[in-house]
Amino acid sequence: MKRIALFVVALPFLIGIPQEGSTQSVPLGDLMIELQPVATGLTSPVALVGAGDGSGRLFVVDQAGVVHVIDNGTLLAEPFLDVRNLIPELGFIFDERGLLGLAFHPDYANNGRFFVRYSAPRDGDPSEPCSDPDGFIVGCHMEVLAEYSVSATDPNRADHDSAQILLTVDQPQFNHDAGDLAFGPDGYLYIAMGDGGGANDSLDDPNLPHGELGHGQDIETLLGAMLRIDVDNGAPYSIPPDNPFVGQAGADEIYAWGLRNPYRFSFDSETGDLWLGDVGQGIYEEVDIIELGGNYGWAIREGAHCFDPFNNSTTPPDDFCDATNLIDPVAEYTHADGLSVVGGYVYRGSQFPELQGKYLFGEWSRSFGPEGRIFYIDPTPGLTPYQVQEVQIGAGSASMGTYVKGIGEDDDGELYVITGTELSPYGTSGAVYQVVVPREFKRGDSNGDNQTGLADVVVDIEYIFSNGSIDCLDAADANDDGSVDLADPIFTIQYLFLDGPPIRAPFPNCGLDPSGDAGVNLGCEAVPCP
């Protein structure tokens, strides 16, 4: 019963239901991508990073408690790190706790140091609501920042005995843990902390220990804030001297505050800008560029709008709140377009010129079902708010059919989309896809050599009867009936040798043949293949 109660109460706290009057605001943009499979069979992957050591390996953080290694396209059987014995038993329907973040030291190639964020059990003080085993507020735990070293004998395994806990932060509830961490261009470690869970930063519920201000506006707590520490000096760390509350009231670790659930953030490798997606309450999702000493408004505001914790289904007028010194998001969208923003990266790779300089990020889902989406922003310096647009995936898709759980970046600046179809951190539906330039295919060209002939018929038959592979099923579907089956090689043979119908219009994915003889590209426009 406890797990079921956790789920029933948690969902409104995590992501709000679209409110009356919300209208879709995210248009389908011109940017088209293709998602190329990299790894499947994971449980609940939430992050992907490179080690910066020149190896080209990918390290995938799985919420269930392990870090996987993808080496030269192969998912290794043994995990790099396994902390399943350190995290709480996770809810079988939904949970936000677990292994949540990973960052390699900038000099990892030489010192082998890396850092992780995970949730750990704690009993809680008897006065805390989370200590009530029969209550509906459960999930009391602590968020842990720990340092590890790589094994001295195996670069694909961590030295579990090297663990050193640097920081723990008590969480009164299971959700709003954020969990991301990364080294900035200044060499300091940045750590995102959610507001401790619950709806409305608990301002409407005196039984929840968020205080009169809520954690978002309480500078004495590490919750609801972006933290910054120096892990190369001090024991176990020191404070950068320009953190805003050094020498005055406020927690010294705080870099910026007023955040609700800053699930994922990243640094632009070219400009150094810190981009962050902050999950909203019930109406707005926001993207921020985080500045030193900035207050981003939660729970005074949700997005760029005043927020009323006693009536969170409507947006109060501007004079409802005092927005003095609060920083606006650089972009926002409503829950008509999605329920939980997933921060991403500004693309600085070399393989996708059209994506260069754009901020690619995710939307967990537009409903409680697996309806994740990929968005992007094309920043215009000095002109905000930025327009959020949806990418086209292959020929265009409003939904991926999965939850989007993270966006990753490798050491070359190439980007990845991390997905799963399970709401809970269980199962094997987790997958990693690389974002690549869409390829073009001619319909009927099953082998991808840019023409249609007998070789394509052979590929079709091998695919149908001998477990062969086809790179683009849209192209192999010669008769354009939505499936690849025996009718397609027959259709191609009829076209090639028996004066059969041409592979061209009226099939909807093929363009008209201007010459009328079906001889140029078989009268068929190139089609992108997802």
Q: Note the overall shape.
A: globular
Number of helices: 5
Give the strand content: 25-35%
What fraction, in percent, of the residue positions are helical? under 10%
Q: Report mean pLDDT, rounded to a whole number.
A: 87
Q: Span from first to last CA?
A: 42 Å
Biggest sheet strand line-up: 21-22-23-24-1-27-26-25
The parts where pLDDT drops under 50 for at least 5 residues are 1-21, 504-526
Which radius of gyration do the C-alpha atoms yield? 25 Å
Describe the structure.
The strands form seven sheets. Strands 21-22-23-24-1-27-26-25 form an eight-stranded mixed beta sheet, with no helix packed on it. The longest helix is centred in the N-terminal third of the chain and has 13 residues, at 2-14. With 530 residues, it is mainly beta. Helix content is 8%, strand content 31%. The protein contains five helices and 29 strands.
Give me the secondary-structure topology:
Layout: H1 2-14, E1 28-42, E2 45-50, E3 58-62, E4 66-71, E5 74-75, E6 81-82, E7 99-104, H2 108-111, E8 113-121, E9 141-150, E10 158-171, E11 181-183, E12 189-193, E13 225-229, E14 254-257, E15 264-267, E16 274-278, E17 284-290, E18 301-302, E19 305-306, E20 331-334, E21 341-346, E22 359-363, E23 373-377, E24 388-393, E25 403-409, E26 415-420, E27 430-436, E28 440-441, H3 454-465, H4 473-476, H5 487-497, E29 527-528
Parallel strand pairs: 1-24
Antiparallel strand pairs: 1-27, 2-3, 3-4, 4-5, 4-6, 7-8, 8-9, 9-10, 11-12, 12-13, 13-14, 15-16, 16-17, 17-20, 18-19, 21-22, 22-23, 23-24, 25-26, 26-27, 28-29
